[in-house]
Amino acid sequence: MQTVVIVIHLMVVIGLIGLVLLQKSEGGGLGMGGGGGFMSSRGSTNMLSRTTGILAAVFFATSLILSILAGMGRKPTSILPNAAPTSQPGAPGGAPPLGGTGGGVLDQLRGPTPPTPSPQPAQPAAPAAPSTPQVPPSR
C-alpha cells in the first residue's frame, strides 16, 4: 500500500514540476518574458493553473496519507538502554506525582547515592594568646 502511494506521489511531483515550468512568467524574469509560449491563448493559462491546483491538492493528500501510514506501525520506545517501562500518567499504579519519592530518569542515570557522613559539630576555636618572645635568663 505504501509503495503504491509513494509511486503516485512521485508521479504527481514530476507533473507539478513540469506544469510550473510550462507556465508563462508574469514578470518576464531573466529577459524571457517576450513572444508566445507553449500555448499562447488565454484559455491555456486557465487550464494550466487549474491543473497545477489539482496536482497540488493531490500532492497534499498523498503527503498526508504517507505520514499517516508511516506513523501507524510506530511503537513508543525508550532512549535509555535498560529503562523499565513506565505506565501512563493518571493510570492506577502509575508513577508517583511530582515531588514524590519515586526517582525519575535523572535518578536512574545518576545511580545509587552514597551514604553521606553526618557532619561533626564545629569546635569553637580557642582564643590565641599573644606570643611573647622567650628571653634567655641572664647570668
Describe this protein's structure.
- The protein is mostly helical and 139 residues long.
- It is 42% helix and 0% strand.
- The protein contains 3 helices and no strands.
- It has helices spanning 2-22, 42-72, 105-110.
- Helix 1 (2-22) runs antiparallel to helix 2.
- The longest helix has 31 residues, at 42-72.
- It is elongated, with a radius of gyration of 39 Å.
- The mean pLDDT is 75.
Q: Which structural traits does this protein have?
A:
single chain; 139 residues; mainly alpha; 3 helices; 0% strand
Task: Record the SSE blueprint.
Elements: H1 2-22, H2 42-72, H3 105-110
Helix pairs in contact: 1-2
Radius of gyration: 39 Å
Secondary-structure element series: HHH
Mean pLDDT metric: 75
Oligomeric nature of the chains: single chain
- Largest β-sheet summary: none
Class by alpha and beta content: mainly alpha
N→C terminal distance: 117 Å
The tally of strands reads 0
List segments where confidence is low: pLDDT < 50 over at least 5 consecutive residues: none
Basic shape: elongated
Helix proportion: 40-55%
**Residue share in β-strands:** under 5%
Count up the helices. Answer: 3
Short synopsis of the structure:
42% of the residues lie in helices and 0% in strands.
